Amino acid sequence: MCPRSGTRQDRPRGSSVDGVHPIEHLRYVARAGGADPAALARETAIALGSLRADPSNLVVASRRMIERHPDAGQMWWLCAHLLVADDPSSLAWDLADRLADDAVADALALALPEGATVVTVGDPATIGSALVDRADLRVWCADAEHRASDLLRRLDRAEIEAEPLPSDALARAVSVADGVLIEAAAASPRRVLAGLGSQVLAATAHAAGTPVWLVAPTGTRLPTQYVDEVARRAVPDAGWEATLDDVSVDLIDTVVTAAGTSTNVAVALRPDCPFAPELLRTGIV
Known about the structure:
Elements (H helix, E strand, L loop, with lengths): L21 H10 L5 H15 L3 H14 L4 H11 L4 H13 L3 H8 L5 E5 L3 H7 L6 E5 L5 H10 L3 E5 L4 H7 L2 E9 L4 E3 L3 H11 L3 E4 L8 H11 L10 E3 L6 E4 L2 E3 L2 H4 L17
Parallel strand pairs: 1-2, 1-4, 2-3, 4-6, 6-8
Antiparallel strand pairs: 4-5, 5-7, 8-9
Helix pairs in contact: 1-2, 1-3, 2-4, 2-5, 3-4, 4-5, 6-7, 9-10
């Protein structure tokens, strides 16, 4: 996503990474559109780790990144961790590493039954990373935002059996599939936000008795207050401008996290970050 990524080193405050000043790095990430939320958060962590901002400037930078990417759950997770940290600069690098080495894709790849047929929607990054490691699977890809073709190309390159799923065949395909996979953008025990098309897919599967697996990448399990705010910004009450689906927790059978799979949905979706109220306030200070 970014023209370069940094590596952790002991640097003086405000030093550049590969010749790009941290502030310019932040501006680049703020302007980035349509990128993987985990990549956005990781690049933000790298920039903030290099910048070594004082607490007041860190609050300002965090709010601005949230304002530019309000539906990126990993950005909320990152900023919340940093705002309560004693040494946010060092922690930023550790969090960047956690995002880069997310174990959720491996957990999903290990958990899927051998020879299973699964249905997913759009181009979910973590689900896609898991599926390319399972040549025994059959994947049906429902479309959303014209992005399923990206996942299909990725699976084709990995020689995974994958087919596009027309909308008029969705109910029939889901009824015979072994499971449905949707990917969380922001989730709590009370509420799940996922990519567009996820609600229809999950509801259809629930009605057919097909298990619904929610894949929760690192950085997407948040305090309920954050998830509600993401929903307020990304799922408006009127109009067609939503960027995420509000998926009922009752539709989910299994949650996949870095710890593995769990059918105890409420426990599995407990927040993986602290609550920093500063992120919910508006204004510069």
